[in-house]
Amino acid sequence: MVKTRHHEGEQAVQKRAGEGHAGWGSPMFDDVIQPGFAHFLRRQRMLVLGAADPGGAVWASLVTGGTGFAGPAGDRDLVVAALPVALQLTGRARVDWDPRRSAELPGALRIVEFDVERAVEIRHATTLRWGPGAFVPLRPGARRRLPRR
Q: 131 and 76 in contact (C-beta within 8 Å)?
């Protein structure tokens, strides 16, 4: 079971901005895929898959496909039905907290700037399935388990 349904990063941003209160914000974490979110997933043409290891090293990959290329199989599994192309980026990201700058871009709340050190396109990225607590298949040499949140 998850500790809290609220994202720690969102809570920190709200606190820094002087908004909200403990437990305030978007409840976004659960240990199952809720029906409303399942419907949302089926309509997407892009997903960002990511994980972190116990030492704090993280990875994220953008995968794309036609509407419906990914969706839940039950309440705990996400299946990517296509063989998508993944773009794997490494580098650094900075968040620009200046509200005047983000106001220049319609719909933007914050601006994230990236210094990309390396970009790798991976065709037919994965047909693998994994869930919470599973080994990260994109790092097969690192036999570490993902922590359950």
A: yes
Quick one: which of 112, 144, 105 has its CA closest to 48? Answer: 112
What's the confidence (pLDDT) of residue 77? Answer: 83
- C-alpha neighbours within 13 Å on the C-beta side of residue 9: 3
Which residues make Cβ contacts (< 8 Å) with residue 78, sequence separation at least 6? 33, 41, 70, 71, 72, 129
Across-strand partners of 120?
88
- For the chain, the domains span 1-31, 32-122
CB 79 within 8 A of CB 58: no
Q: Which residues, in sequence order, are bridge partners of residue 48?
A: 62
pTM, two decimal places: 0.43
